[in-house]
Amino acid sequence: DTGVSQNPRHKITKRGQNVTFRCDPISEHNRLYWYRQTLGQGPEFLTYFQNEAQLEKSRLLSDRFSAERPKGSFSTLEIQRTEQGDSAMYLCASSLTQGTYGYTFGSGTRLTVV
Amino acid sequence: SQQGEEDPQALSIQEGENATMNCSYKTSINNLQWYRQNSGRGLVHLILIRSNEREKHSGRLRVTLDTSKKSSSLLITASRAADTASYFCATGGTGGGNKLTFGTGTQLKVEL
Lengths: 114, 112
What we know:
- The complex is a heterodimer.
- Chain A is mostly beta strands.
- Chain A is built from no helices and eleven strands.
- Chain A has strands spanning 5-7, 10-13, 19-24, 31-37, 44-50, 53-57, 65-68, 75-79, 88-95, 104-105, 109-113.
- In chain A, strands 2, 4, 5, 6, 9, 10 and 11 form a seven-stranded mixed β-sheet that branches. In chain A, strands 1-3-8-7 form a four-stranded antiparallel β-sheet, with no helix packed on it.
- Chain A starts with a strand and ends with a strand.
- In chain B, strands 2, 4, 5, 9, 10 and 11 form a six-stranded mixed β-sheet that branches.
- Chain B is mostly beta strands.
- Chain B contains no helices and eleven strands.
- At the A-B interface, strand 4, strand 5, strand 9 and strand 10 of A face strand 4, strand 5, strand 9 and strand 10 of B.
């Protein structure tokens, strides 16, 4: 297992198009998190899963955003009708369930909406 | 929303010097963590300190936590050029799921 994998690394899309990102967590990690980071800021929480259950969603996650984690393995984050304000780095992280552990982050997907 | 604020926002030091970054937060926490981020990359977990701990060491890193002041500090001793990165503190709340709330970060530059 080589860590958390995110695809694609970069995505350029036209305003109004839909985009989907994929995250493959560390296999034994039951928790999976999505964050968004804009230039010069810290990551902002979007949503998290424990196994296949989506347990919390930030109010940042508008109706245009949806995330899934079928079968509790990989996860996808879809943005519909993209806007220029969606341009950011989208980060995925995973962690163990029991106790308190640090996150393992992927390298992120950089989205540019033109 | 950002929970923590790091201070300073930017820090430039010479190789071999120590670097100290501070983090303040607003609400009760279960734990506080520090992460490093190299330009354009994902974050790397450095160290975790629980709310009932006051100090923790890992290699050249020393973290302190003062829950009464809602603040933490990260000390990097004998800095190296490879330590150049952004450093973020992140707080884990008392609710479930260990959701982390990140601060705004300190940009550290270590010059040769």
